[in-house]
Design goal:
Its EC number is 6.3.4.13. This protein is of the alpha+beta class. It is built from twelve helices and 22 strands. Helix 6 crosses helix 9.
Length: 411
């Protein structure tokens, strides 16, 4: 089989690694890929939907997997399907569940998905008046895609006013901030659940716990994710049953009633509070770095799972009774300003699984090219075993100004 994987991060490296592990004969293409994906297949420099569609037609690609939310929102699935090409992911209408927070919240409200109370505004004065009388903290979200930076937890009225001014008046997110969603702040712990949708049913993966903040003890700025553990040690069977009843089943009902039929991934970002399990957001593709922690525990052949979804067949997911800990190594200064181009040394001494998140090959060396650089994943019979494996191997990896949290997976 010929497989095209679109994206250039740790998620795409992990998807390619799992597919190649299960199907050594598969031919993999990545666009754009990175230094890690280059060890599994061929990296391409295709950027537009038309370029990707043309390549898939000409090369007779059997299946395309999309990591980029922007391309999904722009309709890459619609383009591929018009040309008779197999692709995993939501069409443009369903991708709005990630592409527009207003659309997603209205969908949740309409179909009884348990979520925080909210209001939508496109006018600074009205939004400011509402926020002024609101209980704090509160959450302000830019409606559209904002590279993961469009959600702000405001501790007081001053911060809320500044955030609304930045988004609605100064337009720091451009058209993505034409509307804002203001919602109540939920107190609790987060959990992530990836799932596969076959157009008829949703099949959830095991839970995962993301560590979003740059600093240890969940302090400092938000990032794209500093590490993940799977399964989430705080997410109980009772939580899972509540998730199915209050979130998964109403979501499935809504997808069917809105005729949003597709084969692809639905990522549920959850908040577990004393009042139950709430949905924070949908993502319509594999999470990053959740994918890197979850896939090493999946017993199934990933290609077979995807093909079952494409054919509308039931899917029975089978998991290792183990734990994984994924630690993210970043460039110093991330998530703000950071330098690139530093050689990564010692990867040949890492015995556990690792995925490149932001590095490229240059003059026969692997050098940093992004903020999140490398994912090191330990798998063990216990959470503590998995932590030890990951952190012991991290000692072998070095690049200038590297940074990582030492508390991923601590309970």
């Amino acid at each position: 089989m010929k497989i095209l994987i679109i994206g250039n991060g740790g998620r795409e490296h992990a998807i390619g690694w799992k597919i190649k592990k299960d199907n050594p004969e598969a031919t993999l293409y990545f666009s754009k890929g990175n230094a890690g994906t280059e060890t599994l297949g061929e990296n391409l420099n295709l950027q537009t939907i038309s370029q990707l569609t043309e390549f898939a037609e000409k090369t007779e690609i059997d299946l395309t997997i999309v990591g980029s939310e922007e391309l999904l929102v722009d309709g890459i699935v619609d383009s591929f399907q018009r040309n008779g090409l197999k692709i995993l992911g939501p069409h443009k209408a369903a991708a709005l569940l990630e592409g527009s927070k207003e659309f997603a919240k209205n969908f949740m409200h309409k179909y009884g998905v348990k979520t925080a109370k909210y209001k939508v505004f496109n006018n600074f004065t009205e939004a400011h008046e509402y926020a002024k009388d609101h209980e704090y903290p509160l959450v302000i979200k830019a409606d559209g895609l904002a590279a993961g930076k469009g959600v702000v937890i405001c501790e007081d009225q001053y911060e809320a006013e500044k955030t609304l001014d930045d988004i609605l008046n100064k337009k720091i997110f451009g058209d993505a901030g034409a509307h804002v969603v203001i919602e109540e702040y939920l107190e609790g712990f987060e959990s992530s659940i990836l799932s596969i949708y076959n157009g008829k049913d949703i099949f959830p993966f095991i839970s995962a716990k993301d560590h979003k903040k740059i600093g240890e003890g969940e302090t400092g700025l938000n990032t794209g994710g500093m590490g993940v553990v799977a399964p989430n040690p705080y997410f109980t069977n009772e939580h899972f049953e509540a998730f199915k009843k209050d979130i998964l089943q109403p979501t499935l009902k809504g997808l069917k009633e809105e005729k949003l039929f597709f084969a692809g991934v639905i990522f549920f970002g959850l908040m577990i509070t004393k009042d139950g399990v709430y949905l924070l957001e949908y993502n319509m593709r594999m999470g990053d770095p959740e994918t890197q922690a979850v896939l090493p525990l999946l017993k199934n052949n990933l290609l077979e799972v995807f093909n079952s979804a494409l054919h509308g067949e039931p899917i029975n997911l089978d998991w290792e009774e183990k734990h994984s800990v994924c630690v993210v190594l970043t460039s110093g200064g991330y998530p703000l300003n950071y330098e690139k181009g530093f050689e990564i040394r010692g990867l040949d001494k890492v015995n556990t699984t690792w995925f490149i998140a932001g590095a490229t090959n240059k003059e026969h060396k692997i050098v940093t090219s992004g903020g999140r650089v490398l994912n090191v994943v330990g798998v063990g019979n216990s959470l503590e075993d998995a932590r030890k494996i990951a952190y012991n191997d991290i000692k072998n990896v070095h690049f200038d100004y590297e940074y990582f949290r030492h508390d991923i997976g601590e309970i």
